[in-house]
Amino acid sequence: MSHCVTAFFLAFLMMSCTSPTESNDDNNNSNPSKSLTIDARPAAIPADGASRMTLFVEYREDGVAVPDSTRIILLNPMGTLAQGTIYTVGGVALDTLTADSTAGIGWLVAYADGLRDSIEIMFTDTTN
């Protein structure tokens, strides 16, 4: 990935990591409260180019799972996503990230309907 794209991506991440939204208008309850969360298991894997982690993204509206097949887009500067664009089933969407071959800390970002969440991931040094 070019240095310009990486710099832009990191600057974008620093603006906001989590963005559940809620209505600020107490007189209008028609705006739903939405939340989007991403989790990686395990949070760290060896930087061997082959190890994998599972990504779980949960998307809820007023505490209830969003409709099945709601699209979620994942972005990452390190490693390789199996799909990158995933779809919910019961409010959850899954993807797999294969390790980078360079040790370091990276971010995974999930986007859906104007919401975003991110998580830090680690690719550990395998030369020890």
Compact description:
With 128 residues, the chain is mainly beta.
CATH architecture: Sandwich
Q: What is the terminal separation in angstroms? A: 27 Å
What are the low-pLDDT stretches, counting only 5+ consecutive residues below 50? 1-27
CATH topology: Immunoglobulin-like
Main beta-sheet strand count, sense and barrel state: 5 strands, antiparallel
CATH superfamily: Immunoglobulins
Envelope shape? elongated
Number of helices: 1
- The whole-angstrom Rg is 16 Å
The top-level CATH class is: Mainly Beta
On the 0 to 100 scale, the average pLDDT is 83
For the secondary structure, the number of strands is: 10
| DSSP helix fraction | 10-25%
Outline the structure in words.
- The chain has 128 residues and is mainly beta.
- It has a single domain (33-124), classed as Sandwich (Immunoglobulin-like), CATH 2.60.40.10.
- Helix content is 10%, strand content 46%.
- The chain has 1 helix and 10 strands.
- It has one helix at 3-15, and strands spanning 34-41, 44-46, 52-61, 64-65, 71-75, 80-81, 85-87, 92-98, 104-112, 115-124.
- Strand 9 and strand 10 form a beta hairpin.
- The radius of gyration is 16 Å and the shape is elongated.
- The relative contact order is 0.25.
- Residues 1-27 have low confidence and may be disordered.
